[in-house]
Design goal:
Layout: E1 53-58, E2 65-69, E3 74-76, E4 79-81, E5 85-89, E6 98-101, E7 104-105, E8 109-110, E9 281-283, E10 286-291, E11 296-301, E12 313-314, E13 326-330, H1 339-343, E14 356-361, E15 366-367, E16 377-381
Antiparallel strand pairs: 1-2, 2-3, 3-4, 5-6, 7-8, 9-10, 10-11, 11-12, 13-16, 14-15, 14-16
């Protein structure tokens, strides 16, 4: 049976015959062999690629349609996708459908896939504008009960061209722009947003983090992370560029909100190492670290950093002992004229936070911590 009227063989512009299969599919009995196709659409129209179409798809009289152009490009109601389809791959396991796209958009960016949506309807205060929503769901269906991981979306790129130069390589690029001419108000702007949620049932999560920065890997010949040939001049787990002080009221390179709901061991900025060689604070060339042998903080002023547990200088601290501690001095100043005020002053520059054990005059006479002095004296603090 040809195209056109039922039973005829004419060359009509459209197919108007009904589908007769039980499931509404067009099927072919063509044998499976190299070069054989189920349906081959061709035309002999003249003109440019922009007005020659092989296929038009739409529902009923809907104005939303999809054209398959003769040159392999896809045209929809929303506009032309200029990439073209160069490959169609059907994985045997895991994925429902995968397409490979290549092409050039606007003449300057090479895109594997570009998704753009505009003219959003007014959805009210609860609405969201999403450029793309990637969702992975593992429900009770299926027989598998164990997986090594579950990923909502993955961004990867591979630099595999020898004897070449690449200025910047980025696994995922997240950006926000405010381009309104004037009058726009944005309450919160985040280039990246990470969120976790749990339902109120007895599920067990061993370790949880909203952001995890994995260790880098230098592969050896056997694809293990033990290679030494790669040269990395500088390496940082997290690099924060100059924030330029743009905040009118508050500005900081890092802000941590006040933490609640826990004991003193919770909600802290925690350096799990903190010693001279397990990761500590560095302030310009000054290194502040914990001396585990003597239980004191130490400072080493050197770009190279400390080389032993006892390197640098100890920061003087209270001992909590009545038998040894820190020697300080006071004067007739009403803010520092007793031992109690010297060891733990209540006014600036206060904050010493120690406790007075006893006091002595400069001549060696012992006094109490509450004795008021009219000249210089020594205070023993713990």
């Amino acid at each position: 049976m040809g195209f056109g009227e039922p039973g005829g063989g004419g060359n009509a512009d459209s197919i108007s015959i009904p589908l007769t299969t039980s499931d509404g599919r067009l099927t072919s009995s063509k044998a499976s062999a190299p070069g054989n196709v189920a349906l081959d659409l061709r035309n002999t129209f003249s003109g440019s690629n922009s007005d020659r179409y092989l296929l038009k798809l739409r529902k009923g009289l809907s104005t939303d349609f999809l054209y398959a152009r003769e040159d392999g490009l896809i045209y929809t109601t929303g506009g032309l996708y200029t990439g073209g389809i160069t490959s169609t791959l059907w994985p045997t396991v895991g994925n429902a459908f995968y397409k490979g796209f290549t092409g050039t958009v606007s003449g300057y960016t090479n895109n594997a896939l570009r998704i753009q949506a505009e003219s959003y309807a007014n959805a009210g205060s609860d609405g969201e504008i999403l450029g793309a929503d990637l969702l992975a769901v593992w429900q009770n269906a299926g027989t598998a009960t164990t997986y090594p991981s579950m990923v909502g979306g993955r961004f990867e790129n591979y630099m595999g061209k020898s004897s070449s130069s690449l200025m910047t390589q980025v696994g995922g690029d997240f950006r926000t722009y405010i381009s309104a001419p004037a009058g726009a108000t944005v309450t919160n702007q985040y280039a990246g947003y990470f969120y976790r949620q749990y339902n109120n049932v007895a599920n067990v999560i061993s370790s949880a983090s909203s952001l995890y920065l994995a260790s880098p890997c230098k592969l050896d010949a056997n694809s293990f992370c033990a290679g030494s040939a790669a040269v990395i001049t500088e390496n940082y787990g997290l690099w924060i560029a100059d924030q330029k002080g743009y905040g009118m009221l508050n500005d900081a390179a890092i802000r941590v909100d006040s933490q609640s709901g826990g004991t003193g061991a919770k909600g802290n900025v925690w350096l799990a190492g903190g010693t001279w060689n397990t990761g500590h604070h560095r302030l310009e060339d000054a290194h502040v670290f914990w001396d585990t042998s003597r239980n004191v903080l130490r400072v080493k002023d050197s770009a190279a950093g400390p080389t032993t547990d006892a390197d640098g200088n100890a920061i003087v601290m209270g001992t909590g002992s009545d038998s040894h501690g820190v020697l300080l001095w006071g004067s007739s100043d009403s803010n520092f004229n007793t031992g109690d005020k010297v060891c733990n002053p209540a006014t600036p520059p206060g904050g010493v936070g120690m406790t007075c054990v006893t006091t002595y005059t400069t001549g060696g006479q012992n006094k109490t911590c509450s004795n008021v002095f009219s000249t210089y004296f020594f205070a023993l603090c713990k």
